[in-house]
Amino acid sequence: MNRIISIAGFLLISSIVCFAQNKDAGRPEQIDPGLNEVQNQFMDNQAEALLSQAKKVFTEYPPAWPEPAARKSALLLLDGVLHDVYAPERTPVQQFFKTQMRKAIQEVEEAEIAQGARIWKLYDHGFVVKTKTVTIGFDLIRGKSADAEGFPISEELMERLIRQCDVLFISHYHGDHAEEWVAQSFIDQGKPVVAPIQVWKTKAIHKSMTHLERAAHRIQKIPVQNGEQILQAVIYPGHQGEQIENNVSLVFTPEGLSFAHMGDQSNSHDFGWIDEVAGHYKVDVLLPNCWTTDIVRVSKGFDPAVLITGHENELGHTIDHREPYWLSYQRRQGSERFGGSREQGYETPLILMTWGESFHYKRENF
Known about the structure:
This protein is α/β, with parallel strands linked by helices. The chain has a single domain (39-356), classed as 4-Layer Sandwich (Metallo-beta-lactamase, Chain A). The protein is 34% helix and 16% strand. The protein has helices at residues 2-24, 37-60, 69-82, 91-110, 155-164, 180-188, 271-274, 277-280, 295-302, 325-333; strands at residues 117-121, 127-130, 135-138, 167-169, 193-194, 220-224, 229-240, 244-252, 258-261, 285-287, 306-308, 350-351, 358-361. The protein has a seven-stranded mixed beta sheet, with no helix packed on it. Helix 2 (37-60) packs antiparallel against helix 3, helix 2 packs parallel to helix 4 and helix 4 (91-110) runs parallel beside helix 5 (155-164). The longest helix has 24 residues, at 37-60. The termini are far apart.
């Protein structure tokens, strides 16, 4: 009996050693348990090939309006790769994400904006807007919501971005829009974090955050850069569903440009104020969640010069709720919706971007 146990122990130890050696030698882990090792390696290789091709297109054809036709094909390639259930665990996807984020953060550090604004799309619904005088962050996170080890960018890289920003606006408390470590880093640097009262209400950070009144069409002031610059903002009382407070922040820069970030706005009862925004203010750029309730009516209510959607391909969601780029195209053009009634389209120029890309907005071009 002891001899049998000894042999079993030897085999177990040998298996562990062999697994460690294979892992060190670069053999793929079983990312998808429904596939064998060869099939998993194939999926990794395919992701690497498709992402490499997409990246070439994005480099040659940066975001622009009208949109270069090649960009649509590249964005649809991303949809295919990122709708693999196990996409966030795959090394090529992680490398693509981190490379794109690193590039964007370096650009934020180095960009000098003489005119207009440059807008970077980061993870999920995170955006950075930089003008000649200020740099604004919206819903900035490191990618932990993808719920995959090795996917988020490092704290050191995010710290570099935070140092460039003057303020952080958080739409609501969900982890794909708000990360406490990021918010605390802003506060530690003496920079305001503007959020609904519901965000981290029971935590110590709550008292250090800025809770502006959620009031339709009411301008409020936010000092930044130790009071050297003043932002003006309207914090519209939006909602995700019925109960979740979701700030829709319309922010005015010292240059007079305006940017509206919608978070996860998705409540039809809020159209009372959405329908009236353009009657009160000129909106340069609208940053809606791509799946917001009735995007045609939202576009009409804000009447922005440019619309840049966010929230495509949030990898923490199940694949049926990783909103694809192809659906954003359909919603703009109008289409039949899964056997339901036909959706109308809208005319607002639409800029679709992936992680780490940017668009230079100049009012005179629109």
